[in-house]
Amino acid sequence: MQFDALYTNGTFYTQDAARPTAGSVGVHRGRIISLDDELPATNFREVFDLRGAAAVPGFNDAHCHLSHIGEATMQVDLRPAAVRSMAELLAAVDTFAAAAPAGSWVLGQGYDQNYLGEHPTAEQLDAVSHGHPVYLIHNSRHMGVANTRAFDLAGFPDRRSVPVPDGGAVPADAGGRALGLLQETARALVMDHIPANTAADVAARVAAGSNAVLQLGITSITEPGIGAPDHIGMSRFDLAGFQLAADRGELGVRATVMPYLTTLHRIGDAQLGGHPLYGLDLGLRSGLGDDFLRIGPVKVLSDGSLIGRSAFMCCDYAADLAAGEHNRGLLQFPESDLRERLIGAHLAGWQLAVHAIGDAALDVAMDILADAQQLLPRPDARHRLEHVSVASDSQIARIAGLGLIPVPQGRFIHELGDGAARAMGAERARLTYRVKAFLDAGIDIPASTDAPVVDADPILNIASLVNRTTASGAEFVPEERITVAQAVRAYTVGSARAVHQEKDKGTLAHGQLADFVTLSEDLYTVPASEIASVKVTATIVGGRIAAGSL
């Protein structure tokens, strides 16, 4: 019998403690069937020579907005790498708007006021809109800026009488006119009037995002929030869009998708301990799917953004205090609503994923998750805390004690660290973007980027986890540095475990999915200062080369 493919003459870092390295990997029907010389090369139809290259399991981004990465290729690129000043941002919008079809919306994403000096205003956008409605998404995705035409179409002529919803903010001038910035839940005031994406639109974005991340060595992602465009997601048809992309063969990465919490509803009159159950029709819940597309945890945003200073903190942001203002951020939902829905989803069998950036939001989330487990213990629930951007030692100890999984983003350190340091102040910055403290507490963490908030490149993320320097070159809490081995393990074993998939991915071992990447240099041996220069040369998914070459 002839098997599919043998990849040989490499150094495979397997992440399997029983067999840490291997020289070759044999593949059949998408899974690993041999290591080293267990099967001769003559037993395989194809043999690929790695010529001594290092290889690791495919990178698994545990918090990655794949559809938004694809969408970003279709909109104005406003990331700091593309525009570094307000003049450059306005020029980019001007150029895009001038070429846009009449009556269409001009959408852009990725701007960061920490680089620009301030948020754009509606009036500034009016001057370069060429009559189009304009909406620009902040790189945190927790706020955006609309021009006057966009407010008009949303039912607020001349930006007047704009309501402020619970969990949101709409800054206005002395005369009561909205300035253009819409924060948190207030984004929906305008976003609800942008033409809705169809399932085909979503599929196109998923395909574009998939192609982009495959080039970076990402073979699996978890999309944190679908189906609720007023909160997170492309449309109400997100899952159909992912499935359509998969049907067309355009979903090249393995995707675990998180329905947003508001897509769940009460399950009739079902209750447990006086608490209503929340779920989806037909009893769908976490875990349904196949090797390429499955339903993961249910996701909710409990608070806002650190760099946008809307994450819910125990005390005022230092930067706002210095300006004579009091601001602790906010919860996006009343705590009672979060409690009812999250406990209800737990009771219905869902894995939970709670976005909690601020330390006050973290306490709220942990209180709710602890109460849910007390009401109905589920020993291996693996409920998640997304980001955990600010946490004290005692909070980290509680996370470990409750068996929760924090999901940090190392690349935040480099791209957002300077803004975070200004927002938090020197003393509280020590509690920000912690990673080693989780490992020291015995927590098996995943790795993620939250792309397109920051760059999706896993190599750059690993460099940030190891070096912990900001874009300005400043060290950022250097005592939280981790090793390359720890970072790679997080990106593979940790990310698989975070969605109950460690039996299929994360290690290069018998029976595992044959997902791995080859590298231009050995991550384990290059100096820390040179990690960022390492490139992924080939991405193998299911034993087949999906990007690059050998």
Structure report:
- The protein is an alpha/beta fold and 550 residues long.
- It has 16 helices and 26 strands.
- It has a six-stranded mixed sheet, with no helix packed on it. Strands 9-10-11-12-14-13 form a six-stranded mixed sheet. A four-stranded mixed sheet has the order 5-4-1-6, with no helix packed on it.
- A hairpin with a 2-residue loop joins strand 25 (536-541) and strand 26.
- Helix 10 runs parallel beside helix 11, helix 13 packs parallel to helix 15 and helix 15 crosses helix 16 (484-497).
- It starts with a strand and ends with a strand.
- The mean pLDDT is 96.
Q: In percent, how helical is the residue content?
A: 25-40%
Task: Indicate the proportion of strand residues.
Answer: 15-25%
Low-confidence stretches are none
User: How is the biggest beta sheet arranged?
Assistant: 6 strands, mixed
Distance from N terminus to C terminus (CA atoms, Å) equals 26 Å
Mean pLDDT: 96
Strands in their spatial order, largest beta sheet: 3-2-7-24-25-26
Question: Can you count the helices?
Answer: 16
- Give the total of beta strands: 26
Shape: globular
* Computed Rg: 23 Å
Structural class determined from secondary elements: alpha/beta
